[in-house]
Amino acid sequence: xxxxxxxxxxxxxxxxxxxxxxxxxxxxxxxxxxxxxxxxxxxxxxxxxxxxxxxxxxxxxxxxxxxxxxxxxxxxxxxxxxxxxxxxxxxxxxxxxxxxxxxxxxxxxxxxxxxxxxxxxxxxxxxxxxxxxxxxxxxxxxxxxxxxxxxxxxxxxxxxxxxxxxxxxxxxxxxxxxxxxxxxxxxxxxxxxxxxxxxxxxxxxxxxxxxxxxxxxxxxxxxxxxxxxxxxxxxxxxxxxxxxxxxxxxxxxxxxxxxxxxxxxxxxxxxxxxxxxxxxxxxxxxxxxxxxxxxxxxxxxxxxxxxxxxxxxxxxxxxxxxxxxxxxxxxxxxxxxxxxxxxxxxxxxxxxxxxxxxxxxxxxxxxxxxxxxxxxxxxxxxxxxxxxxxxxxxxxxxxxxxxxxxxxxxxxxxxxxxxxxxxxxxxxxxxxxxxxxxxxxxxxxxxxxxxxxxxxxxxxxxxxxxxxxxxxxxxxxxxxxxxxxxxxxxxx
Length: 492
Ligand code: NAP
Ligand code: MG
Fold this sequence. Notes:
Blueprint: E1 5-7, E2 10-12, E3 19-24, E4 27-36, H1 40-57, H2 62-78, H3 80-91, H4 95-115, E5 122-125, E6 131-139, E7 142-146, H5 154-165, E8 169-173, H6 179-191, E9 199-201, H7 206-215, E10 221-225, H8 228-240, E11 244-248, E12 253-257, H9 263-275, E13 285-291, H10 292-307, H11 327-342, E14 346-349, E15 368-371, H12 378-381, E16 388-394, H13 397-404, E17 412-416, H14 420-429, E18 434-437, H15 464-470, E19 472-480
Parallel strand pairs: 7-8, 7-10, 8-9, 10-11, 12-13, 12-17, 13-16, 15-16, 17-18
Antiparallel strand pairs: 1-2, 3-4, 5-6, 6-19, 14-15
Helix pairs in contact: 1-7, 2-4, 3-4, 4-5, 9-10
NADP nicotinamide-adenine-dinucleotide phosphate is lined by residues 146-151, 173, 175-177, 205-207, 210-211, 214, 225-227, 230, 233-234, 248-251, 282, 383, 385, 411, 452, 456.
């Protein structure tokens, strides 16, 4: 089936006849549909629709906008299982994780629906008599949302829901690996009676759709989640127009295990964080820093557990680890593993594609652990975005923190220790936007801010109250009811 773009409340054919296919990365004979490889003209139509709709939607009372999101949340909840299975087919993550991804989207939608009755600003006394002062939130305008494939449901809701409840309109370009999930989410909005043009969906590639969308003069804000390289490019498009640009980028997230940590608990956390979603989470743990005294014991347990992980189609309940999203990702992992071996790291397990049995049909790579890694190696520094864990040994707490911070990225980190003083110190010392104590690096909750420091972003945060700050602008209002000209700062 050939799916269509969603522009101005209509499912509309692209201006081009070019198409691309969405395939199941666990079994490429399973096709999820054909989608238009849209172009600038399609983008222009979508932005014009968003521009017209903004004039109406921004005037709809926020509680009413929230009510619409509430209906959307209910509909998604009713179809959670269907969406989860579809997601597993489209991008490969195992079903229980796909359910988590959809649940996160449901949580975010309910949360932002309720924001319709808050969107709090504040009042404060004015310095002059008979004068009122307040700060209120205003929508920003037309938002370009560009999203990745690894959380094809949750991440779009992190952008679309706060943007809409705050009165903005959106043009969404989803990742080319997960167009079908994007279609299904958009269809829910259509079924719930979202006014035309408030949300528009344009399928197509980064350069054909992403670039003209971000560059469009009528776009007022760009919200992007993806790689740091793309983020840097997009930031420039925003700069040209002095647009607000929200960037959620790469990670190289460390877990630190100190000698007084609970090793079994740490093994659980590391396996889940490093190999969950086949290592393709922005918060995935890709570096493990172990204090000397427990290094060998922890590694032994870790390798034993990792070797037991079952690769396979994520729809099979026996599967622990699904495929990589596409062939390019599988090959990238292979190149980094070769590099790691060449640079002198010690390969403890994995280290090859899985081409046995049904795995031949897709893009599988065995969960891989390298020991004796040093900070100058590529496998320590670069985001591989696959099931590859690099392990380093630390002399003490200070060395461990220095190793953990030896990266350009700063999204998530974790530390295992039973020493409250060290845990508390680590919260300050670890240079990341998120830190977990005695848990792995993954597992965000929607009512807290999400994002990173250093090259993971440019200072913004998604989710929680922070999302409302992202998608609104402050307007300051003074009301002088004295009936005379009063001057601030004591000017006579
Ligand atoms: P990506 O290549 O940067 O793509 C992300 C999105 O940007 C896709 O929709 C892509 O379209 C589009 N795009 C590509 N080039 C573009 C351009 N020049 N202008 C405008 N849009 C463009 O990232 P990815 O490899 O799909 O995703 C994995 C990356 O995302 C990792 O680095 C990961 O760490 C990061 N990530 C970060 C977070 C976070 O919250 N910090 C969360 C999830 C993922 P196509 O799909 O059509 O190429
Ligand atoms: Mg696919």
